[in-house]
Every structure is written in C-alpha cells, then in structure tokens.
What we know:
There is one protein chain. This protein is mainly α. It has one domain (2-135). It is built from 6 helices and no strands. It has helices spanning 2-11, 14-32, 38-45, 54-78, 88-99, 103-137. The model has no long low-confidence stretch (mean pLDDT 90).
Amino acid sequence: MSFLADGILLALEPINLALIIAGVTVGLFIGAMPGLGSVNGVAILLPITFLVPPNSAIIFLAAIYYGAMYGGAISSVTLGIPGASTAVATTFDGRPLALKGQASLALVTAALASFVGGTVATVLFTLFAPVLASTALSFGPPEILR
C-alpha cells in the first residue's frame, strides 16, 4: 500500500498534473482524427518524453493513450466514422443519437463509460497484480512451447 500511496503522490506533483492535462488534450485530438488511434498517438509523441523525467514520461504517455481512447468517440458520434477499432461500438448508438440532435448526450455517455471502465479496470488490476505476478513467475521451462 505504501507503493500505491507513493504513486499517487508522484502523480499529484505539479509537473505531472500539467503533463496529464497536456497529454489528455493532445490525445483527444489524436483520437478524434479518423485513422489515428491511441497506439499511433503514443508512438508519434514518444520522442517528446525524452525531455522529462522517466516517471513523468510514463504518465504523459498514459494520458495520451486514455485521451485518444475517448477521442475516438468524437469522430464516431459526430461523423459516423470510428477513428479506431475500439470506437466501432460507439458508432452504433452514438451516431443515431447525433442524427436526432443529441450528440452531446452520446458524447457525455461515452466519456462517463470510458471513465468508469478505466477506473474499474485500474482498481481491479491494482488489486490482482500480486496474484497475477506470482502466477506468471510460477511458469517455467515445461510450459514454454517449442
């Protein structure tokens, strides 16, 4: 638990908060452009991370990734063109709502769903990481296929 507390304190440092805001903003633009996705955005902006400390760089790249994951919903809802494969399902419900004049409802719903899904996944991963790590370390040569 002390490592988790240290990580939260690290994320709340001013430089890291600024990088989170910048990363999510850039990620939104990247995700909203059809054809560019979260992985492409992270790959394109990777050289920028050489200017900051390693922990801040990881935070910045994660912010770009999460921003781009939601940004795909913008083009899915407004244009009916999913920017990435992860936004295809958003097109099915979001585009018809946009055609009815309720695009803001679709975008807010996508944002809330993205936030809740990311939060639940992060909490579950944090809780089960020790079990997953010990399971992964228990694999040895007999389990490796040749």
